[in-house]
Amino acid sequence: MIGHRRPNSTRAAVLVPFAIVTLIWGSTWIVIRDQLGTVPPSWSVTYRFLVAGVVLQAVAMARREVVTRDAGFWRFAATLGLLQFVLNFNFVYRAEQHITSGLVAVTFALLLVPNALFARLFLGQRLGRQLLAGSAVAMAGVALLFVQEARSDPNGPGQSLLGIGLTLCAILSASCANVMQATRAAARYPMVPTLAAAMLIGAGLDAAWAWITTGPPVFDLRPSYIAGVLYLGVVASSLAFTLYFRIIRAIGPAKAAYNSVIVPVIAMLLSTLFEGYRWSPLAAAGGVLAGIGLVVALSARRPAR
């Protein structure tokens, strides 16, 4: 019976890609850290989305996906490329030059807030009590994680404020791009070729900005750097963004943003395995609360329009 159907956000079609994206993006913070050094951040961002765009374009061609590339398509792809693949990532990569990757990841968990607000303002999605309750619990966990990471950050207060400010700018850019995926305009165009165009446009804008601000292209021939570019381009961008934007279309931007709440917990778990990170009682409590909030929120029904 209809009344006994499971909520959209607890079905395997949503939970499986949600888990995949969370695990992938939980690992990217360590990889991004290795990208900062010889190569200016804007060039690293350029290489990442050039690889991602080429891969998705090849997938679209192999699947023979047809898309009407009218003026509306190019406006949508260019706007998405600017917000998601230029502003968002340039802010994130620069933030990691001033604060630890853990603090950037935890701060980015605040994506839940603008996603929920913008979904209410621009999409008319009402947030139910269960979703609000889950959000409150999750944000309490994020607050504990933030305090823990801020305490352990070796940079001075000036550097920390600058890094957090850059991360907040990235959050706003990403949130606008997230909400775009839940609009009727997004539904008019196939996901893969649209994302390919947005990433290639973004890579072009990234390259222009990098050349203007830092000079001609710079590349690092270290195997770890090359592997990082390929991982970030193919897995963390081509695959992860395709899955994530489909999640947004299925359950809305607010609930999809819970990905960013769990990502720092995954990042800390991976840091425990590979970097010797030690969990304090504060961090452990924050991780538990974030997980409880996720379960409560995702078990709520899809926001009403």
TrEMBL record:
It holds the Pfam family EamA. It is a multi-pass membrane protein. The keyword Transmembrane applies. It is found in: Membrane. Keywords: Membrane, Transmembrane, Transmembrane helix. The chain crosses the membrane at residues 12-32, 44-61, 73-93, 99-119, 131-148, 160-180, 192-212, 224-244, 256-274, 280-300. Its main location: membrane. Residues 19-146, 162-297 form the EamA domain. GO terms for cellular component: membrane. InterPro entries: AA-Vitamin_Transporters, EamA_dom, EmrE-like. Belongs to the EamA transporter family. This is EamA family transporter. It comes from Sphingomonas ginsenosidimutans.
